[in-house]
Amino acid sequence: MFALADFPAVRPGEDLAGLIAAYGPQAGDVIVIAQKVVSKAEGRIVALESVTPSARAHELAEQTGKDVRVVELVLRESTKVLRARPGLMIVEHRLGYIMANAGIDASNVGAADQVILLPEDADRSARDLVADIRANTGTEVGVVISDSWGRPWRLGTVGFAIGLAGIPAVVDMCGRPDLDGRPLQATVIGRGDELATAASLLMGQADEGKPVVVIRGLDPSIGEGRAADLIRPVEDDLFRQGGDGK
Hints:
By secondary structure, this protein is α+β, with helices and mostly antiparallel strands. It is built from seven helices and twelve strands. It is globular. It starts with a strand and ends in a 5-residue tail after the last helix.
């Protein structure tokens, strides 16, 4: 696993696949790309002065103490507000992720009074990158678009896959024997999130400037998956359904 050295700053409209292809990817590589780089290339930067807040945004801004214009963008990017308290909004993003502030961020955007949104469709972005890298190099790779989130019941942020293509997102191990020969009953591995978290060790979270990490030497089986496969269906989510009081 290694970060691409001296990766250039990415601007709206940049040929991200071309920049990655210039480093010579090998067949079977999994290329993990920080969400912000993809969002910048896709022009997902918003100037806050262009945002007109709604009445609901004003209400939530008063409740949370957040910039009302940012709250408005959170509402536009979300289908539901699950929790709101001072300094924090937990929402269901329109792509199905449960996350803080709809993933909207002001760090490393490049200019004051601007924020960056998640890609319009991160799985589609990953598919396009796989296809464009193939067109540039003739090489089959996997792509993971990663973001850093907090987790319920645990301190600290870790990498999560929000877009994925060219590899499986989940690996179902049910039926495989353990060391004692007993078949596994409920082991499903979140491969996409494991790769995103591993890559975040090299990417860092501040001014490291290493937004692209190559993971080489994994099981070369290339299969199709998407980050949406990692989202637990609401009907199977006991916490969002509510507890039974026990």
